[in-house]
Amino acid sequence: MLQKEEKIVVVLLIMAALSLIIAYSGFSEEIQSYSPDSKLGERVYVEGTILSKQMTRTGGNLILTISNLNINVFIPEKSGAKEVNDSLKIGDRVRIAGKVQEYKNIREIAVESARDVVRL
C-alpha cells in the first residue's frame, strides 16, 4: 500500500502529465490545406505536381508553380532554395507547407525550411 506522501506524488505526476497533454493539444498549430479563404500569415499546405520551377535572377530564391493552384510557392535562399531546386524536378508530386503572404499584391506561400517540401 502506498504511503500518504507517495499518493500525493502520484497524483501530482498525473496532474502534470494531463496539463502537458492539454497544453500541447490546445496550443499546437494545426495546418490547413490552402484555399482562397486562407488568411495572411496562416500556416497552410498544398499538394500537387510541379509545373515549373525557377530560380530568381537575384537573391537565389526559388519559385514553384504547382498544379491545380492559383498561387506560387516561394522558397527563400536562406530556407534552402538551392537544396530544394536540386532535389526536385518538373513533374514531381509534392506536399509543401508554408505561410500565406503577399508580394506586390499577389498571394504566395512562403516556405520556412527545406524540410517543409516533401516529395510524394
Q: SSE layout and pairings?
A:
Layout: H1 4-27, E1 32-33, E2 43-55, E3 62-66, E4 72-75, H2 81-87, E5 93-103, E6 106-110, E7 117-119
Give a written overview of the molecule.
By secondary structure, the chain is an alpha+beta fold. It folds into two domains: 1-29; 32-119, OB fold (Dihydrolipoamide Acetyltransferase, E2P). It is 26% helix and 36% strand. The protein is built from two helices and seven strands. The protein has a five-stranded mixed β-barrel with strand order 2-3-4-6-5. The model has no long low-confidence stretch (mean pLDDT 90).
Write a brief structural summary.
By secondary structure, the chain is an alpha+beta fold.
Overall radius of gyration: 21 Å
Fraction of helical residues: 25-40%
Mean pLDDT: 90
**Strand order across the biggest sheet?**
2-3-4-6-5
Distance between the termini: 54 Å
Tally of strands: 7
**Main sheet overview:** 5 strands, mixed, barrel
Order of helices and strands: HEEEEHEEE
Query: By helix and strand content, what is the structural category?
Result: alpha+beta
Shape: elongated
CATH class of the largest domain: Mainly Beta
**What is the CATH topology assignment of the largest domain?**
OB fold (Dihydrolipoamide Acetyltransferase, E2P)
Which residues form runs of ≥5 with pLDDT under 50? Answer: none
Figure out the total of helices: 2
Q: Which descriptors apply to this entry?
A:
2 domains, alpha+beta, 36% strand, OB fold (Dihydrolipoamide Acetyltransferase, E2P), five-stranded mixed barrel
